[in-house]
Amino acid sequence: MTQNKKVLKFVDDSVKLCKPDNVVWIDGSEKQLDELRAQAEKSGEMIKLNEKLLPGCYLHRTAVNDVARVEGRTFICSRKEKDAGPTNNWWNPKEAYSKLYSILDGAMQGRTMYVIPFSMGAVGSPFAKVGIEITDSIYVVLNMHIMTRIGQRVLDSLGNSNDFVRGLHSKVKLEEENRYICHFPEDNTIISVNSGYGGNVLLGKKCFALRIASYQGKNEGWMAEHMLILGVQNPEGDIKYIAAAFPSACGKTNLAMLIPPKVYSDKGYKVWCVGDDIAWIRKGKDGRLYAINPENGFFGVAPGTNEKSNPNALASTRKNTIFTNVVHNLENNTVWWEGLDKNPPKNAVDWKGNKWDASKGEKGAHPNSRFTAPAVNCPCLSSEFENPNGVPLSAIIFGGRRAKTAPLVYQSKDWNNGVFVGSIMASETTAAASGAVGVVRHDPMAMLPFCGYNMADYFKHWIKIGKTIDEDKRPKIFNTNWFRTDEKGDFIWPGFGDNMRVLDWILKRCEGRVDAVETPIGYVPKTEDINLEGLTNFKKEDLEKILNVDKQTWQEEAKEIEEFYQNKFKDTLPKELYDELDKLKENLK
Ligand code: OXD
Ligand code: MN
Q1: CB atoms inside a 10 Å sphere around CB 95
Q2: Is residue 386 part of a domain?
Q3: Residues 504 and 476 in one domain
Q4: Full-prediction pTM beyond 0.85?
Q5: Distance CA 418, CA 566 (A)
Q6: Is 77 a catalytic residue?
Q7: C-alpha 228 to ligand 2 mean position (Å)
Q8: Into how many domains does the chain fold?
Q9: Domain co-membership, 122 together with 194
Q10: 526: in domain
Q11: 259 lies in a domain?
């Protein structure tokens, strides 16, 4: 399929190491994919679902001990430890290669090795980057087909270039104690062993498009971010684009596919989805920042997705989708998860493969169960989705899941203050990564698990990018928090489609069409400027509550931030961020 000597050598070396029975190059043809689907069905790796109700859809179950990203076993293997920085696990590359090669030695005996050429970004886009993933999993091939652009056309676009990421994955024996997700940014290489969970094994996604790409972006002058991208169309037909960073399982997919409330849709507002998880951002010819979504599908969290919370996501999963670790509804050979509707199937199998009785109170779908759905299925997919030059950004939003502290929305004072706002992001942990859930942790720019190099240098890179853009062309930077709770622990803000009301304020601020209240942390809306029309059960007093910036709480937060900065980064942190912290402390006096 290719004459590229570097690609051929990578495959040859991997064959010598893993010793598969045979090697199959993925050309991207439907014929080949169909054969693989049939094979996976025959072996039980995937279950074919009801062709009438869910055409082209399959169900897969991972091993019970392999259901989320494993941050504790994810490594950045740079030559110098300081280049991985204080927030990453570091492993000396020599030792890491040696251990990984010993695990991979003969790991594919009796198996087939698949070679997947893939492109992150539309093939031929100036943003696009090529990868080759080698794997022994058909599930990985079929997911990569949905999540990226694969096949012969990718090899053709690569030509004889050496500019591709080498990804080597093997399930080996799915041993938890020998599970490693390793990145070698200086070698453009990723090795993942003993896992079959998407975030650990679809190497185009977190491993390449965030960890390796963030490192490439630092060296090449662009940014790889854990951000959704959406376009808000106003009644005149103008579309403004926003990128937003939220930690895993904090509603990026829901915001990216938002359906505006009636008061907005009646006037002609629409929201278009460009991406729900990753943005690659670079300066365009006109001096503004442009973003593409390097992916080609959605790897979304299933539980909680329903007709009300996210009808567009649900519609995206109605054909050619792979479901992982959800409930198998045997009544009609479809799928179900908690929060889909109030009617759990009576005759069903849970995510572990056991007969499931909903009335016993145990969850049927894993909280991190997923759908892998093609982007083209999405009813609100932006017409700019394939635009090789991306979309121009008017605003950037950072946000977390915070029961208290952060107001519904605030605007930073300028670019560096915005970088500060991103750097102090904190959020309650979710089921997307293994470990405790609901614990507040600092997660700068939602990149804590995904920055492929020293995070202090990453902050410097953000500051540097700001300097390269004229002030009037820089996107304005905001922070949102949909998750403030009342005394009973219930969410105060309705969220979902009603987040449009906040996006509306954000865009008005970008256009200088609305005033704001200056607080110690930034600009907060005047209550009358958040449109509450048509919102039942939500009072102006509730809005006042969630827009409130409590000085004492923020004084404590500032102490927290200082500790975080000092403990993690000490004097490696850019001076600009310490200056911003000083300003915040001063404002809070
Ligand atoms: C994801 C994640 O899958 O962040 O997008 O875990
Ligand atoms: Mn994510």
Answers
A1: 10
A2: yes
A3: yes
A4: yes
A5: 20
A6: no
A7: 9
A8: 3
A9: yes
A10: yes
A11: yes
